[in-house]
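Re: duplicated header lines in exported structure tokens

Our pipeline writes sequence and tokens for each protein into one text file. With two proteins the header for the second block appears twice in some exports. Here is an export where it did not happen, for reference. First protein block:
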Amino acid sequence: MPLDPMPDWVLTRRREIGARIRTARLRAGLTQIQLAERIGREHRTIHRWEYARHIPNLQDLLLVADALGVPLADLVR
């Protein structure tokens, strides 16, 4: 059962993870569209993750980390 409303710390962590994805993507020199193509997702999905509208699941985080050449821990610390 989801928590309603979501605790503040969850929203904070969601924003932090999104910012880390964005930073790693920019360091890799990729656009949202290019990253989306590499992991088989729509670019809107990448946008939603980066701006904390949605949170990627573990499988998606693994795909992103691999596509960007960063350890998974760097995205979720």
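Second protein block, exported in the same file:
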Amino acid sequence: MEEAIKQIGERLKGLREALDIPTKEIADLCGISEEQYLEMESGESELSVSNLQKISRKYGIALDVLMFGEEPHMCSYFLTRSGTGMSVERQKAYKYQSLAGGFRGRKADPFIVIVEPKPADAPLETNTHMGQEFDMVWEGRLELTIGGKKLILEPGDSIYFDANQPHGMRALDGKAVRFLAIIF
């Protein structure tokens, strides 16, 4: 997956250079330093799907193009067979599988997300992104922190929330969590 992260970084750099966008502008959009952004471009730092989504919306580039290098091409329907959606690990603890990657002009981005367990003393990483998010847990137990409030989601539980609020996720019980996430 390191190669996939480097390829995403290359696409970010290509977008920035093609549109002649200053690094500071993109870094400010993502709420990170220019140095952190350049580390993303070089594939040396973790990529946040929320930051990729901010960039895709601001500059009118499909999220799939940034994540997978492919332009969506279907406009009537797009079928994703079990286990076949394009995937990317944004860091070792998170894996995203796109479920609508080939549908052009979609209004939402659905993913299957797998959160791997971390040591109990590992800090919780939070992020924010525009829009709203729906999550439904399929396997495992998920601790979801939204704006400082901790919630425990069990298999079958779902939540819909304002994604502009800081939120972070942690797998519980030393087991991976698998859930459906739809970002609007």
